[in-house]
Amino acid sequence: MTATLTAPGGTLAGTRGLVRLALRADRWRIVVWALAVAWLTTVSVSALETVYASDSSRAARADLIASPAATALAGPGYGLDDYTIGAMTANELALWIMLPVGIMAVLAVTRHLRAPEEDGRLELVRSQPVGSAAPVVAGLLAATAAVLAVGGLTFVGLLTTSLDPAGSALMCAAIVVVALVLAGASAVASQLAAHARTASSLGMAAIGVAFVLRAVGDVQGPQSTSVWTWLSPFGWSQATAPYTEDRWWPLLVGLAATAVSVALAFALAGRRDLGTGLLPDRPGREAGRIRGVVGLTWRRQRTAIWSWGFAIVLSGLLVGVLAAQIVDFIADQPAFEELYPGGVGGATASAFALYTVFLAVLAFAYLATAVGAAHQDETAGRAETLLALPLSRTRWLGSQLALATGAAVAMLLVAGLVMGLTAAASLDDPDQVATLVGAAAVTIPGVLVVLGVAVLVLGFAPRAFAVVWAYVAYVGVMAMFGDLLADGADAASPFTYLPALPAEPMSWTPVVVCSLVGLVLVAGGLAGFRRRDLQG
Amino acid sequence: MTDAITASGLVKTFGPKRALDGFDLRVATGEVHGFLGPNGAGKSTTIRVLLGLLRADEGDVSLLGGDPWRDAVTLHRRLAYVPGDVTLWPTLSGGESIDLLGRLRGGIDPRRRADLVERFELDTRIKGRAYSKGNRQKVALVAALAADVELLLMDEPTSGLDPLMEALFQEVVREAAADGRTVLLSSHILAEVEALAQRVTIIRSGKAVLTGSLQELRSLTRTTVTVGLRDATGGEAALAATEGVHDVRHDDGHVTFDVDADALDEVLAALPAHGVSSLVAHPPTLEDLFLRQYGEELAEIKATR
């Protein structure tokens, strides 16, 4: 094996070195991904075990999930007549593990296959005795290692739950296989696209298409009976029906598709010049119309704004559409009186309050990417070019922050409006429109707090920008699990103080205080940014 | 004549490293000032201090009569900057980048832009991510040179340009100087500085080690002379005994030696006695100046070992 891989002259020459380099570069990323996915999966299954302890609550859940809107976001619905925790995990949770793991695999491939080509590192590498297929193998093997680590550790985590180990093994294998299929597709996309960013966008688009195909298929025909389901790698992996039917054979379809796409990627790699793609790059405009930093930021952020906005508004839409079923589901709970002392109205309001916070956390994540983009411009040297112009640092950063904040607020308000309109229709209650727009609006001080934290980090400790992401994750985890943790653990999250509309009454003091805290942090961060040396 | 830039005693540290260590610089208005130094000597740090992107820890600096840190925005209206390693916006075409930079400055002269784009043979439709290094450099040069400013700060602006473009660069910098603009040109291409600059400053390890006009600097160093002599052996002996003459070599009827500027008279008077058949004199190049400075550093390093 070693001899063939390092054989001089072959297209695979030098693969071993590149693979080792890729794994070394990714080692911490892989560890973090594996721990995060395994932990979140195990925690989620434990939560399902606690919340759905009784047969009747699981039956009610099965009814809720059988609706088309819920099916589109879940799976093919195996075992709905006897909805065990295992069936529930495979039907509702598995897809949401496959999705991020698939994204991870796609990004790993482009990171090792195209990004080094773009910045010229690969040119240096390929001038050594390294064959054209070696980077393809390196990218695929790095992705495979990450996927196997995630799948393996998740399986170990699931052993601590009540789930059948055989079913868990199958589900984890199904997650691994779907990620491998997407990695293969990403390797092909990397040969077609002229640039790393186009390649990863193509990979993401492939994930989106696969997701929609399986959603359409599962809504049309339950238990993988629709043709559409079988056009999607997610469909293949979900057709394994872990914990119920326990079929292994659909994974062969995925493995075969991976083999085909990998072979195609190899063939294309030998046919392509270094630094080009098989699809031509479109030329740009000869003259520019961009005015000012806001125009520039819009131009660079618009794809992100539309994609995040679409995801957030779509989430709001689904919550609204499902409102009637959520209410029925809550009312059918046998332990209803104990669980929800506030009556059906109160329980529904709590559910909406929680969903609204979920939407807000998504908007925070967008905000973190937007401030992160400003930080990247600084380290890449683009900020230096602009700040050598008659442009103050406050205006340079402030314009970008204003646009990002405006976009995050707009996403939340539109999502609240769409959620309100669909909930009003679904519940036949026009008041929901104002209620849910209000619920979305009251999270805006949270946007300011997250913005403040991000600007403060940028202003005083730009090298520690990962702190911003840690804070967003902290706010998300506290919103979901804060009640289960020690008192005071959630003290730094704005949602600990903001009124959880519509479940709680409106209260202006925390809204004003959180907004002021956010604005003071922003002002402090901007002052720090004005005073410090530019990085890069 | 006033000074466009004065800096004295600049100190800038990055952790334990002293990037600038009491650096002095004076650039007169209207001159092209060469700024020379090996990699890592502190050239880019100096320029970034002059742009107000970094704040000096100690020392005084004045640029166009203002404080580059405090008055950054107003001063930047009057200057343009070309970085040595240009990064562009990956999805913006070169033309869009030039126009964006022009608009942020408050307007761009479309005729000057078109003229420079044509002369630099820049394809403005290519996106930032697809440009080669030289073409990214051209984008920054066009954007800076099309601007109507008093001062050009250039940090190794020709890295990545081919020899034809390098020649064109020299031409446009001469035009800019003829228009009365001040240019601070950092470079390690000595021929470029020699061709353009009236005065130079050499920086080493964060200190200005030499500064002055090219003429002054040349007089500080030695002219290399190769002379064909009918009596080569006698000539060699006579020259070796003359004060101010160094490193005398003898090769097949030709004697080569280095001579201090103030010993030239004496040497030229002495040569005819040995029968001159040919004579070639090289003026000291910047390379010599530079290598001499650098050579001392190497000698210091050797001595400390």
Order of helical and strand elements of chain A: HHHHHHHHHHHHHHHHHHHHHH
Shape of chain A: globular
Low-confidence stretches of chain A: 1-8
> What is the global morphology of chain B?
elongated
Helix proportion of chain B: 25-40%
Oligomer: heterodimer
CATH topology of the largest domain in chain B: Rossmann fold
Q: Helix-strand pattern of chain B, N to C?
A: EEEHEHEHHHEHEHEEHEHEEHEH
How does the major sheet of chain B shape up?
6 strands, mixed
DSSP helical segment count of chain B: 11
Radius of gyration of chain B: 23 Å
CATH superfamily of the largest domain in chain B: P-loop containing nucleotide triphosphate hydrolases
Largest interface: A-B, 34 and 43 residues
Rg over CA atoms of chain A? 25 Å
By DSSP (H or I, 4+ residues per run), the number of helices of chain A equals 22
Structural class estimated from helices and strands of chain A: mainly alpha
- Write the CATH architecture name of the largest domain in chain B: 3-Layer(aba) Sandwich
How would you describe this protein?
The complex is a heterodimer of chains A (536) and B (305). With 536 residues, chain A is mainly alpha-helical. Chain A contains 22 helices and no strands. Chain A is globular and about 70 Å long. The two termini of chain A are 43 Å apart. Chain B is α/β, with parallel strands linked by helices. Chain B has 2 domains: 3-218, P-loop containing nucleotide triphosphate hydrolases (Rossmann fold, 3-Layer(aba) Sandwich), CATH 3.40.50.300; 222-283, Alpha-Beta Plaits, CATH 3.30.70.120. Chain B has helices spanning 43-50, 72-76, 94-105, 110-119, 133-145, 163-178, 190-196, 214-220, 232-241, 264-270, 286-304; strands spanning 3-14, 17-28, 32-36, 58-63, 79-82, 151-155, 182-187, 199-204, 207-213, 222-229, 245-251, 254-260, 276-282. The model of chain B has no long low-confidence stretch (mean pLDDT 88). Chains A and B meet through helix 13 and helix 17 of A and helix 2, strand 5 and helix 3 of B.
